[in-house]
Amino acid sequence: MDIKDFERKILNELKAVVETILDKNQEPNISAKSRAGAEISSLLEEQFVAETANHQYFKKSVASPAGATKNPWDAMTYFNINGHEELIWIDFKAVKISSADSNPDIGTPDKIIDLIYSGFFYLAYVFVYYEETQNGLKFVKNADSEFVKIYFLKDISSTFRRNPKNQLQVNISAKPEERSREDFINVLFEKIEESHKRQIEISTKALEKLAEGNTKAKLIEINKQSEDKIKNL
User: Fold this and answer.
1) InterPro entries in the record, alphabetically (predicted)?
2) For a surface tag, which of 72, 130, 179, 194 has the fewest beta carbons within 10 Å of its beta carbon?
3) Range scoring the smallest mean pLDDT among 32-41, 122-131, 219-228
4) What gap in Å lies between CA 181 and CA 187, rounded to an integer?
5) Going by DSSP bridges, is the β-strand pair 148-152/161-162 parallel, antiparallel, or unpaired?
6) Regarding beta strands 168-169 and 161-162, do their DSSP bridges make them parallel or antiparallel, or are they unpaired?
7) CB of 148 within 8 A of CB of 54?
8) What pTM, to 2 d.p., does this model score?
9) How far apart (Å, rounded) are the C-alpha atoms in residues 110 and 157?
């Protein structure tokens, strides 16, 4: 089976499941003023497991354990086709529509590396959008008239970067870019290398500034003068 066809089939089936969940929960009992993102994610996790209990392709779906904030996935499932079983990690992202142009952290690169080491590859990001209402919130369409935006991490926009906290970042509105799995591995490591080089450059400049300046000596002298005033009371 062609890899691209395989990947598109997974994404299409995932998107259909999430759209069904949103259709059944158009205005969930969640306050937009609380931890809406976390509560929406919990709703999607639970409903995804329920919706795929007897699914043609998705089997053995599991939601992230309650309170497991460091879990590498919000839900996991196995995509079954033609006798092949493929592990899929799912990361739900609930986005307030007024913040649809933000650049949130989307997780450490370590988790996709661990997934690839395990013999699998697919971490799917599922974005849903909401706005505040008088009674709480409701799901809405994004600028592309979609209730659900979905793509694999391997197809993330080339504008993504790794920050000093070892988190990947990308603009929510950035368009995904289809690439091969090997191309993604190359791009990922290029981004990691670029990030470390930026950190080295920043640290090098900071050390040079410390070496050139006499800030420490000035602070010690100012502190001495302050202490002398106290001693002479």
Assistant:
1) SwaI
2) 194
3) 32-41
4) 10
5) unpaired
6) antiparallel
7) no
8) 0.88
9) 18
Bridge partners of 68, per DSSP, are none
A 10 A CB-CB count for 154 gives 24
Instruction: Write the single-letter amino acid at 125.
Output: Y
3-177: CATH, from 1.10.10, 3.40.600, 1.10.20, 3.90.660: 3.40.600
Question: Which contacts (CB < 8 Å, 24+ apart) does range 199-204 have?
Answer: 199/164
With 90 as the cut, is the pLDDT of residue 85 above it? yes
**88-116 pLDDT, tens digit each:** 999 999 999 988 788 888 899 999 999 99
Cα(81)–Cα(204) distance, rounded to whole angstroms? 52
Average per-residue pLDDT for the chain: 93
d(CA 233, CA 230): 5
| Token digits of residue 49 | 């497991």
User: What is the 3-class SS of the chain, one letter each residue?
Assistant: CCHHHHHHHHHHHHHHHHHHHHHHCCCCCCCCCCCHHHHHHHHHHHHHHHHCCCCCCEEEEEECCCCCCCCCCCEEEEEEECCEEEEEEEEEEEEEHHHCCCCCECCCHHHHHHHHHCCCCEEEEEEEEEEEECCEEEEECCCCCCCEEEEEHHHCCCCCEECCCCCEECCCCCCCCCCCHHHHHHHHHHHHHHHHHHHHHHHHHHHHHHHHCCHHHHHHHHHHHHHHHHHCC
- Assess contact for 61 and 73: CB atoms under 8 A: no
- Domain ranges for the chain, please list them: 3-177, 180-232
